[in-house]
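Sequence in, structure out. Go.
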Amino acid sequence: MDVREINVLVLAYLGDTIYENYVRKYLVLSGIGHVDALQKKSVQYVSAKAQSKFLKEMMAMDFFTDDEIDIIKRARNNRSTSHPKNCDIITYKYATGLEALIGYLDLKDKKERIDKIMSFILK
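Output:
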């Protein structure tokens, strides 16, 4: 199956778990030893607001390839009208774009590229 044919929301579903796993490993390895503290700190990275902010920063820096921008835009422009109560639809769509890109890159076996993206985010 061609990865580009997979529904972008399905890619985001996969990308969400990969993204969160990177963040969790980063926080655990940073020495935080309490679950409550880990949870509070993770919100700075895994919330739709944070993901949207990181994506916009990287886009402003021309961080992504044309192929990656295409995936981001497809996810961002998806006709979904639902979103979490704690953020607006635009913020949610940008976050979905980042998650879809991560899922896409994972299915394309581009772990090094995911590492670069996550390194930027976790600086």
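Check: The chain is about 70% helix and 0% strand. The helical segments are 8-29, 35-46, 48-60, 66-76, 89-107, 111-122.
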